[in-house]
């Protein structure tokens, strides 16, 4: 696999390009054909998988992305930036602020309407996009900003996973969940038996794939969103095989899984209505992502930084925390999934929600590019001045 497929820059560009392509095609003469294709159901209803192509992407393909997220989350909690509570406390509090404030802004905008249950939509931060923008425009910024952003985004994803599992569960089948839990134990045991170069390794890998697929099938039928199966499998996978899995699958996720999901999710027809006729959902999401996120992350992160200042703790300045806050407003992937889950029964509002996520995340991207570029230029200027003074 080419190394550039692992780059945050490539991932961000691929996601944005796929989303724009999906939106453009959906609003051309090809749109109706694309819609019919995405609504086509695969002939596997006999085994309880009567899913359309669009649902295979959001329920099946995206489970791979969440499996990778869980592997990264586990690594950060065990051996990464979140392993030390003193280091993790400030981004953890900032992440909570980045969830609470956007949700509150959305609820204020949609108060008195039947759309208030869409509050989870603007609570997510897209790790790939945020890191991609930082990589593209942040040359010269201190590494502490990237570390803080990564920790915050990982914790943000953890909160999103909990929201998906709890808020969007429906008609929970505890027997199916129990079966999935048993298979998770089997999956973990098989993972621990993996040994590089062992003759049994190919058979163990095949067995793990089968167990993983059946676990996904059980979670799908349990009433909990099927992507949670990917999360659970990633969390129980032992560290060594988890690292190998992440290394081999991440390029496919960046090049295929996320762009396909972005393309399918963004393939909506722009409503032929005036701006004043857009629903409160549109305005709630479009405002909460670029505004609610930066306020929540900056406010909570700055207060936490003051309260927990000390050796081994974050010492980011107000400006640096605000920079992370602006980047946090790029919701995209998980926000699109939240929107689909929140308004599954209302196609018109789903479409407006998609447009709102694209608009809100787009504003956050532009703002992030400007803020990150300005701060990076300032840091580079200070470094050049210091180097010049040192040579005198």
From TrEMBL:
UniProt keyword annotation of Signal present: no
Keywords, comma-separated and alphabetical: Antiport, Cell membrane, Ion transport, Membrane, Sodium, Sodium transport, Transmembrane, Transmembrane helix, Transport
Record field: transmembrane: 53-71, 92-113, 119-138, 147-168, 174-191, 203-220, 226-242, 254-275, 281-304, 316-338, 353-374
InterPro entries reported for this sequence: Na/H_antiporter_dom_sf, NhaA
Main location: membrane
Catalytic activity from the UniProt record: Na(+)(in) + 2 H(+)(out) = Na(+)(out) + 2 H(+)(in)
Top-rank lineage group of the source organism: Bacteria
A UniProt-annotated Pfam family: Na_H_antiport_1
Membrane topology: Multi-pass membrane protein
Location in the cell: Cell inner membrane; Cell membrane
Coiled-coil features, chain-numbered ranges: none
Similarity field: Belongs to the NhaA Na(+)/H(+) (TC 2.A.33) antiporter family.
Role: Na(+)/H(+) antiporter that extrudes sodium in exchange for external protons.
Protein name (Swiss-Prot/TrEMBL): Na(+)/H(+) antiporter NhaA
Organism phylogeny: Bacteria, Bacillati, Actinomycetota, Actinomycetes, Micrococcales
